[in-house]
Amino acid sequence: MVFKNSIDLYKKALNLIPGGVNSPVRAFKSVNREAPIFVKKGQGARIYDEDDNEYIDYICSWGPLILGHNHPKVIEEVKKIIENGSSYGLPTKYEVDLAELIVEIVPSIEKVRLTTSGTEATMSAVRLARAYTGRNKILKFEGCYHGHSDALLVKSGSGLLTDGYQDSNGITDGVLKDTLTLGFGDLEKVENLLRNEEVACVIVEPIPANMGLIETHKEFLQGLRRITEETKTVLIFDEVISGFRLALGGAQEFFGITPDLTTLGKIIGGGYPVGAFGGKREIMDLVAPVGRVYHAGTLSGNPIASKAGFATISYLKENPSIYKELAENTNYLVDNVEKLAEKYGVDVCVNSMGSLFTIFFVDLEKVENLEDSLKANTENFSIYFNTMLDNGIVVPPSQFEAHFLSIAHTKKELDRTLEVMEMAFKKIGEKNAK
Ligand SMILES: Cc1ncc(COP(=O)(O)O)c(C=O)c1O
Predict the structure, then answer these.
(1) How far is the CA of 431 from the centre of ligand 1 (A)?
(2) Engineering a disulfide at 391: which of 29, 293, 420, 425 sits with its beta carbon 3.0 to 4.6 angstroms away?
């Protein structure tokens, strides 16, 4: 495969944009690549780069594209309104339609406010929890990523972890002091902490997908719900990834647990920029202009994003068998990956839930938290990533992210993926044997 145009673009971008990219993980730094690929277009399960290479895509824009690239139903709806105008800074019908659908489907949400990104949604939810409880401290879990607002960039996952650190510079001591962190899954420590400190909220990815995917134990989330109720702490489920992906009603429907606040993003914008936070009416009515917790945005609830999100969610709602099919396809890949690993003597632990999975190159029965995931062999991951890319399959350029499936990934794509995975596992096995 030739990557000339992407390499040239990257060289140019390096002089113009820090690191040549607008989100760090896109630089392909941790997988020792000369340059990332620059994408020209996407269709179904496939993307095409500026050198006209074709790839089967397991990034799916990091989650939003559960229907695949350019799904006709979404495009059709977007086309209907895109010529009317782009943004008005005034209310539109499309925001109300999307809000109505979210409230109808997500069990805990009685009222919802739309934002432009997941970062804004989690930042605002934390502010709201502080105002509601009158407390300052918050609790998050090591390796969970909730966007890049100051308070949540402590012991964080995703791009930071990929580049080998967990806390950002430029955050004040005061903010750091107010963000408490614990290992994911350690209920005893959560109980101890919440009984001894005044904490405004516990924010959690109900299925963490930013330290690689973790298979959450339901008992942990049940425990969080019980302790937060007893200590009058706000429980925030960050469902930016899991919302409308793990199940139509997200992780809260899947596990049958009702948080106080929920943050959403990705799928609810159908590939366009959007986010949301919502929850109990009593809490949400503290948001301006009803209350005095300020949240605003020039592009909040953008009509095109709202329409694309509405079309995507409506399609999911009308075709509920999608979730079963996605899980079956994921299991098909996962089962075969485990067989390949055994055949070539490669240590792996594959975690999967719904349409997400991570292949941890590690000699552990299960990866349960950040401490475990950091034991992974990133050199083996790099061989895996590069073999896949050089043979037309894009997987996340980081050991600490999840593969995303869409409904456009058919048996044909899955079988081609397994063929290339076999090449990768063979290479890793041969390297290990040396
Ligand atoms: C769980 C979670 N929360 C929040 C965010 C931030 O969303 P955004 O990138 O739209 O700001 C992300 C982004 O990947 C995420 O995975």
Answers:
(1) 36
(2) 420
